[in-house]
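Design a sequence for this backbone.
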């Protein structure tokens, strides 16, 4: 009886909610308890004025601590700050707790809270703030996700506060904001398979996300649109391919658009 139960668990945890494994944002759902995932994401931002091939690589480990709590630990390496050299940018820790779950057959509604902290080895350079190796800071927010059959909708709102060695100088002289509010609206659709008969079936998910942020201390902002597709093999290996395109904005960013490619391998029942 162990094998059928294991297969059923694989299908329920990966296939039935695959369309909410968003590429550019997190859903309110958490990873399966006692699971560990190893993830590597490559980002290639671009601007019309770029004279160098900018690239960043983000390895991560994602741990499903329990059915309600997950922890994500990652680092970042890029040539964003030294165009001719790939270097260590920083590291981050992300925690998400799902505090509400209203589940039914082929549908659910979930709410989660998250907190994140990060540090960087770089100077505060770009107007756009992030904890992916660009700034020292903390971030916290809420996520709501609704799944109905093959379609998932999710919304996120957060507040980000960064810290520098000279906050007054960044704020008054360089006109750098130290606080930012952000949001995302994400939709996902499970295109394939049309019907599940085996957990080894390939999944194809399509995504469209709207990502935005606004500085609190000045009038800088951006709004991006981000289409993506995702392939899942054997219910445990995921490949993401997506792009971000700025619709509107006035921030100085390393790129007003980016291509992102990622691969992730998940191991269920990593410990007993």
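Sequence:
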């Amino acid at each position: 009886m162990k094998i059928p139960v294991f297969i059923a668990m694989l299908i329920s945890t990966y296939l039935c909610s695959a369309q909410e494994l968003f590429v550019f944002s997190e859903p309110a759902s958490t990873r399966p308890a006692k699971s560990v995932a190893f993830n590597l994401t490559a980002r290639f931002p671009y601007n019309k004025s770029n004279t160098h091939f900018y690239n960043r690589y983000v390895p991560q480990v994602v741990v499903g601590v329990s059915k309600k709590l997950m922890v994500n630990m990652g680092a970042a390496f890029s040539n964003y700050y030294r165009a001719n050299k790939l270097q260590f940018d920083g590291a981050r820790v992300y925690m998400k707790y799902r505090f509400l779950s209203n589940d039914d057959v082929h549908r659910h509604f979930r709410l989660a809270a998250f907190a994140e902290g990060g540090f960087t080895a770089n100077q505060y350079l770009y107007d756009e703030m992030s904890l992916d190796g660009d700034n020292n800071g903390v971030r916290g927010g809420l996520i709501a996700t609704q799944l109905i059959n093959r379609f998932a909708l999710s919304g996120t709102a957060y507040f980000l506060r960064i810290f520098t060695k000279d906050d007054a100088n960044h704020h008054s002289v360089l006109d750098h904001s130290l606080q930012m509010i952000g949001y995302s609206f994400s939709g996902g659709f499970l295109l394939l398979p049309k019907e599940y008969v085996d957990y080894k079936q390939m999944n194809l998910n399509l995504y469209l996300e709207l990502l935005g942020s606004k500085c609190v201390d000045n009038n800088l902002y951006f709004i991006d649109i981000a289409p993506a597709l995702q392939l899942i093999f054997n219910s445990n290996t995921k490949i993401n391919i997506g792009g971000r395109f700025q619709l509107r904005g006035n921030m100085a960013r390393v790129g007003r658009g980016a291509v992102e490619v990622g691969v992730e391998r998940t191991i269920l029942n990593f410990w007993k």
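The chain has a mean pLDDT of 90.
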